[in-house]
Specification:
The protein contains nine helices and eleven strands. It is an alpha+beta fold and 278 residues long. A nine-stranded antiparallel sheet has the order 3-9-11-10-5-6-4-8-7, with helices on one face. Strands 1-2 form a two-stranded antiparallel sheet. Helix 3 packs antiparallel against helix 4, helix 4 packs antiparallel against helix 5 and helix 5 packs across helix 9. The longest helix is centred in the N-terminal third of the chain and has 35 residues. It starts with a helix and ends with a strand.
Length: 278
């Protein structure tokens, strides 16, 4: 068969047949040495038709090659590819839901607010961050950092309670705190005035323990509620965007920003607040 006849039978275009020949996936039965015309055999129709079906599914060439070279494995290969496509579609659907909610909220979301806050003593542990690991594409670095932070918060809570300094409110964390390294995050609990009760607590799990006081102050804050889709997407919350824009407008970019846990009735975090002292 000529390339045109074979294309009509197999469903592949002449251009596609030339491409698959170049890739070594479907070579013609014969090529005229003078004219370069390709000729195909009847027994090649099944392979060509299979290639078309798999490519129409969006299957990459490497997997198509495996499926047509190993027909006894083709069912498994197709099933594996179908599962990956389904997972990708679920991820895209989730991303679309987040985008449909967040994009209007970025434009028209609630602005950051202000309030007066009372004087508050605190104790914290400085946890070193692996910035390269945090930036990993699979998100594993962020998950590991969150687990480590949870463990550190719990360990600090217990150490404080043993000294009669049971925390008096929700935890918070902050980057860029005074006296803390640039690659460290400070994990804090609000506590009663410690006096000398923390004199012997300088290290916890290999991390430095520090304490201080937030004086009575005016704060700017924004609440950020976190849903399941958001937790999976890692997208910037509308409250974060509004807060950061307000930080820039007020010219307080060099101030310490605190991320405060908002706890539900059962003590489980349901949201977070971003705050900065004005």
């Amino acid at each position: 068969m000529t390339i045109g006849e074979f294309a009509a039978l197999s469903g592949l275009s002449a251009k596609a047949l030339r491409f698959y020949d170049e890739k070594g996936l479907l070579a013609p039965r014969d090529v005229d040495p003078t004219t370069g015309y390709r000729r195909y055999g009847a027994g090649q129709v099944r392979r060509a038709a299979t290639i078309k079906l798999l490519r129409d599914m969006g299957m990459p060439l490497a997997q198509v090659r495996e499926a047509v070279d190993r027909p006894d494995e083709s069912d498994r290969i197709v099933a594996d590819f179908r599962a990956r496509v389904a997972a990708d579609r679920e991820r895209q659907d989730r991303a679309m839901r987040v985008a449909e909610t967040f994009l209007p909220a970025y434009e028209n979301g609630a602005p950051a607010q202000r309030r007066r806050a009372a004087r508050q003593a605190w104790a914290g542990v400085a946890m070193t961050l692996d910035l390269d690991r945090l930036g990993s594409d699979d998100g594993a670095g962020v998950a590991e950092a969150n687990d480590t932070a949870d463990d550190s918060f719990g360990e600090l809570y217990r150490a404080l309670a043993q000294r009669g300094l049971t925390p008096t409110g929700p935890f918070w964390s902050t980057l860029g705190a005074a006296g803390v390294g640039p690659e460290q995050i400070l994990l804090c609990w609000p506590i009663p005035d410690p006096g000398d009760a923390l004199a012997d607590l300088t290290d916890l799990g290999g991390n430095r323990v520090v304490n201080g006081v937030l004086d009575e102050r005016e704060e700017m804050f924004a609440r950020c509620d976190v849903g399941d889709d958001v937790a999976e997407s890692g997208a910037a919350l509308p409250g974060v965007v509004a807060f950061m824009e307000a930080v820039e407008d007020l010219g307080v970019e060099d101030r310490e920003v605190r991320q405060v846990g908002v706890l539900g009735p059962d003590g489980v975090p349901v949201a977070m607040e971003l705050t900065v002292t004005l």
